[in-house]
Amino acid sequence: MSIKEQVIAIIAEQAMLEPSDVKMEHTLADLGIDSLGLVESIFAIEESFDITVPFNANDPTESDFDISSIASIVDAVDKLKTEQSS
Amino acid sequence: MRRVVITGAGTINPLGTDVASTFEAFREGRCGIGPLDIKDVDRLSIQIGGQIKGYEEASHFNRQQLALYDRFTQFALLAARQAISQSGLTFSGDLADRSGVVLGTSGGGLTTQDENYRAVYEEGKNRVHPFIVPRLMNNAAASHVSIEWNLRGPTFTVATACASSNHAMGQAFNMVRSGMSKVMITGGSEAMLCFGGIKAWEGLRVMSKDACRPFSATRNGMVQGEGAAVYVFEDYEHAVARGADILCEVAGFAMSSDASDIVTPSKQGAARAIAGAVNDAGVALDSVGYINAHGTGTAANDKTECAAVADVFGHHADHLMMSSTKSMHGHLIGGTGAVELLACIMALKDRVIAPTIGYEESDPECAMDVVPNEARDAKVDVVLSNAFAFGGLNAVIALRNLN
C-alpha cells in the first residue's frame, strides 16, 4: 500500500467510513473526527509508519505536522518518511 | 430524612450476565470459579478465579467506545444499562441535574495499566495509545455511566479496597436520604484478573489454589472474581409518584475504621459497623434475619466476622443466617459488595437465602448458621451486607422489605 492509501485507511477507520468515501480535500472535521479522534489517528500513523509525529494537542495548528486536510497529512507523513530514510 | 428505595438492579459477574441468571445460580448453589484464562497464567501460582467466561466486548461496544472503556468500565456500563432500564427512568432537566453516580472500584483500569506496562517495559515500546489515562482512571466507569445516561449531578468514585462498593452505596443512600439527590446510580465494578492483578495478591499469601470455602474448617484462602453490579437508589416518594416497581428499601448504613492494623481485621471495628447499620435503620437487632457476610474464606476474616456478629447480636446470632456468596463468584474486591447486595435482594424479594458453597467441616470459631451448600427458603424482613476492607475500613448496609 502507498503512504496515501495507508493514511486514508487509518482515517477511514477512525471516521467509520469506507476508504473510498475519504477524499484528499477533506478536513478531519468534514469526516466527523474530533480532537480525541485526531490524537488516536496520529497514534495510528506513528504505529503504522514507525515515525514520531511532531504534534501537540494543546495547539494542533501550530505543529509542524499539517493536519488541515487529508492531502496535507499524506504530504507530512511522506516528508517524515523521507527524512527518516535520509 | 427521606426514605430510599431500590428501583433497578443490573449485573454481570461470574455467575450470570443479568440479575435473573445470577439469582438462579444463587438458588442452585452454582460455582462460577474455575481455571483462569489469561496471559502468562503459567507464571502464576494461583491459577483459579471467578472469571466472566464467554464475554465478547465487541458484541456490546463499538471500536471507538472500546478505545476508551477498560474492562471494569464495560462491566459497569452493562450493569447500569440493566438497572436503569428496569427503573424506567429517563434523565433530563431538573431530575438530571439532581441525579448522579457513585461507584466503587479498587483497581480501576488495572487491566489497561497491566497491558501498557507490559508494552513499555517487557516489549520495550516507546509509544502507548493516547487514551491510556482516561481508560485507566478509577472514575472512568462512573463518568461513562454519567455520560451515557445524562446524569449531571454529584458523580464520583470511592476506592476503599474490598469495601469500595459498600462505601459507594452508603454515600448514594445518604445523598438521596438527605434530599441532595432524587436518584443515584450506585454499586461497583472490578476487573483485576490480569497477570499483575493476581500476582500482587499472590504475594500476600492469602489466596487459595483450589476453592473459596468460607467458614469451613478446611478453608485455605480467598479467590478473586470480576464483574459489576449497579443499582438505582431513588427517593421513595419520587418512586411512588411515578408508579415505579420497588425492589426493597435501603434502610440503614454505617461505617467505621479499625484504626489498628493495615491488613488484620478487628472484631471491634466490624462490630461497630454492623451495630451501626442496624441502629441507623431504626430496627430491632432481632429483626435481622440474614447477613450476607464479607466471608472471604481466609482464616482471619471469617473467625473475626463471626465473633463480631456474635458480639452484636448475642443470643440472636444463633437464630440468624449468614452466608458468603464469595464461595460462588469469588471476591470481586472493589465490586464485591455490589454483587453481594443481590443476594440480599433475593432474600427479601424471593425469600431464598443464597448458600455458602464448598462448606466441608464446621469450625468452632465460625459457629453460625452459614446456610451450607444449599439455598434455603426463608422469609426475612431485614438483611445486612457486610464489607470489611484492608486498611481496617468497614461498611455495612441494611435493606428491608417495603411495607
Report a brief summary of the structure.
The complex is a heterodimer of chains A (86) and B (403). In chain A, 20% of the residues are buried. Chain A has helices spanning 3-15, 35-49, 70-85.
Mean pLDDT of chain B: 97
Q: Main beta sheet of chain A: strand number and arrangement?
A: none
The tally of helices of chain A reads 3
CATH topology of chain A: Non-ribosomal Peptide Synthetase Peptidyl Carrier Protein, Chain A
Structural class of chain A: mainly alpha
Enumerate how many helices of chain B there are, as a single number: 14
Would you identify the CATH architecture of chain A?
A: Orthogonal Bundle
- CATH homology superfamily of chain A: ACP-like
Q: Low-confidence spans of chain A: pLDDT under 50, at least 5 residues? A: none
Main CATH class of chain A: Mainly Alpha
Describe this structure in words.
The complex is a heterodimer of chains A (86) and B (403). By secondary structure, chain A is mainly alpha-helical. Chain A contains 3 helices and no strands. In chain A, helix 1 packs antiparallel against helix 2 and helix 1 crosses helix 3. Chain A is globular. Chain B has 2 domains: 238 residues, Thiolase/Chalcone synthase (Peroxisomal Thiolase, Chain A, domain 1, 3-Layer(aba) Sandwich); 149 residues, Thiolase/Chalcone synthase (Peroxisomal Thiolase, Chain A, domain 1), CATH 3.40.47. Chain B contains 14 helices and 14 strands. Chain B has a 10-stranded mixed β-sheet with strand order 5-4-6-7-1-8-14-13-9-10, with helices on both faces. In chain B, helix 11 packs across helix 12. The longest helix of chain B has 17 residues. Chain B is globular. Chain B starts with a strand and ends with a strand. The mean pLDDT of chain B is 97. At the A-B interface, helix 2 of A face helix 2 of B.
